[in-house]
Amino acid sequence: MIIGYAAGAYDLFHYGHLEILRKAKENCDYLIAGVVHDDVLEQTKGRRPVIPIDERAAIVSHIDYVDEVYIETTPDKIETWHQKPFNVFFKGDDWKGTPQGLALEKRFAEVGVSVHYFPYTEHTSSTKLRKVVDLLEAEHDLRVEMRRFAELLGDRAYHEAVVAAKAETPVGAAEAEAS
């Protein structure tokens, strides 16, 4: 029996995540999806995920291709393998040929695990989605502060109209009008 392991944050779950799990399942008999714990993501990527671990694990556990979810609590994939053995490790091909990917392949080869790469979905990524979420949050926070500032100035109706007009003006157009 071929046991496959597909690790990921699976934050802001999207089509690329679904595809790697689908392709992984096509290449093994039993698929374990390793969902990386919030603390490990903060340690390795420098930020916590948008969606907490329990919710990400619940989402991934309901994907038909996944036979089991394992929550990763260490950044060391060999340690993960010792805790939850598998025969094949699945990874996006953005790692293929990189120093990290070559080191991963070497370490896994020492314990008899092969690394199988799948095309990385560049047009959809959690990093891009997170940037959009961050921008939307920043815009919301700015609007709240602008309203608060307008209230402090006392002419709320005028300042709300200015805020609304600027929100409808394409980026750069306001600067062009000012010059």
Automatic annotation (TrEMBL):
NCBIfam families: cyt_tran_rel. Transmembrane segments: none annotated. Keywords: Nucleotidyltransferase, Transferase. It comes from the Bacteria. The keyword Hydrolase does not apply. PANTHER family: FAD SYNTHASE. Pfam families: CTP_transf_like. InterPro entries: Archaeal_FAD_synthase, Cyt_trans-like, Rossmann-like_a/b/a_fold. Residues 6-131 form the Cytidyltransferase-like domain. GO terms for molecular function: nucleotidyltransferase activity. This is Cytidyltransferase. SUPFAM superfamilies: Nucleotidylyl transferase (SSF52374). Gene3D superfamilies: HUPs.
